[in-house]
Specification:
The chain is of the alpha/beta class and 351 residues long. The protein has two domains: 149 residues, Rossmann fold; 163 residues, Rossmann fold (3-Layer(aba) Sandwich), CATH 3.40.50. The strands form four sheets. A six-stranded parallel β-sheet has the order 3-2-1-12-13-14. A four-stranded parallel β-sheet has the order 6-5-9-10, sandwiched between helices. It has a two-stranded antiparallel ribbon with strand order 4-11.
Length: 351
């Protein structure tokens, strides 16, 4: 058993950029679990943890929405662990009655079998109108026709006592599209991820509480050649269970004014010992904020993605790791006070 104190570690796997690990629903979870064990304290975002009907609850893992995670890394928010919270359910008025009932039944199942505190349930006063697009790089993004309806529903949930929000929006779908076929075969990009980020970012920024999103989609026809990484998304009628579990113990988001005034059990960016991200996706706000604080950046070269924003392109000094197993070894070295370079050969001279 490791008796060294925890080394708070930030794990970032950007959504919607086709990462080989973390580009599907929950396939970044094994890496997250390993890094939580290595560090004793892992801060990561729903893209890593959400596996549709599958999830993993670990008190060493702090579930933080992407916009809030960026603010945490920038030193603007602290994280305060909680024993549990009441998760309000926000449903898009554009969801058909049968599919809406499936969402409610998923929430009821989480109440009955997991003991989660869920409610109230609020439906938006008009359909949200989600749109999906791909950028020039091939990464996914999205639009929302009625952000005002989303915020009004969120306001009702907060006023009714919800301390987190699980949002479910009706997403457009094209079951015969080439992009979907490629994704299910293991070679595409998650076309939903960019729009999901728009929804969760808007809610967290407006209300300052944990939020995450689950898309409402009709079940797909059986595909015997399905890539294992896509299988979690085929198990049930909804993607909601993992979101409800993640939010049930997501930490409070505590503004730091002035920076550095957090106390007690709160986590601050100043306490971070490492940040881990795909080697080609180092240009995000969280990674750059950590690099500016001279927090070690561990770049996972084996997690290929659509981007090529690496350490060399940014002028960053990074510690390269071939995979997340090697990254966990680097975290353990840092946690034990070892210089990771001392484990590599050849070992160059000081002078």
């Amino acid at each position: 058993m490791n008796d060294a104190p925890p080394l708070p570690t930030l794990l970032v796997i950007p959504t919607g950029i086709g990462c080989a690990v973390g580009g599907y629903a929950g396939d970044g979870l094994p890496a997250g679990r390993l890094l939580a064990a290595a560090s004793g304290c892992l801060i990561t975002h729903p893209n890593v943890m959400n596996g549709a009907s599958l999830y993993w609850s670990d008190r060493r893992i702090h579930y933080v929405e992407g916009w809030a995670l960026d603010r945490f890394a920038a030193g603007e928010l602290a994280l305060a662990p909680v024993a549990g919270r009441r998760v309000g359910l926000l449903l898009d008025a554009g969801i058909e009655p049968e599919l809406r009932t499936r969402q409610i039944q998923a929430a009821e199942a989480c109440r009955a079998t997991l003991g989660l505190s869920i409610g109230p349930v609020v439906t938006t006063d008009s359909p949200l109108g989600v749109g999906l697009s791909l950028g020039p790089s091939g990464s996914s993004w999205g639009t929302l026709e009625r952000p005002d309806a989303l915020l009004r529903a969120g306001e009702k949930l907060v006023a009714a006592g919800a301390t987190a929000i699980a949002a479910v929006a009706r997403f457009p779908e094209d079951p015969g599209s080439e992009a979907l076929a490629a994704y299910r075969a293991g070679s595409g990009v998650d076309a939903l991820a960019g729009a999901e980020a728009v929804i969760s970012h808007l809610l967290v920024r407006q209300f300052g509480i944990p939020c995450a999103h689950a898309p409402a989609l009709a079940p797909l026809p059986l595909d015997p050649a399905l890539d294992p990484r896509a299988a979690a998304e085929e198990l049930g009628h909804t993607f909601l269970p993992c979101v409800l579990v993640g939010l049930s113990r997501a930490p409070d988001l505590v503004p730091l004014v002035p920076v550095g005034m957090a106390a007690g059990a709160r986590l601050e960016a100043a306490s971070l010992g490492a940040v881990i991200a795909p080697a080609g996706a180092l240009g995000g706000e969280a990674v750059l904020a950590c690099a500016a604080r001279r927090i070690p950046v561990i770049a996972v070269t084996g997690n290929a993605c659509l981007l090529q924003v690496n350490g060399a392109a940014l002028g960053l000094e990074v510690i390269n790791a071939a995979n997340y197993g090697e990254a966990a070894g680097v975290v353990l070295a840092l946690r034990e006070g070892l210089d990771p370079a001392s484990l590599r050969r050849p070992l160059g001279p000081l002078l």
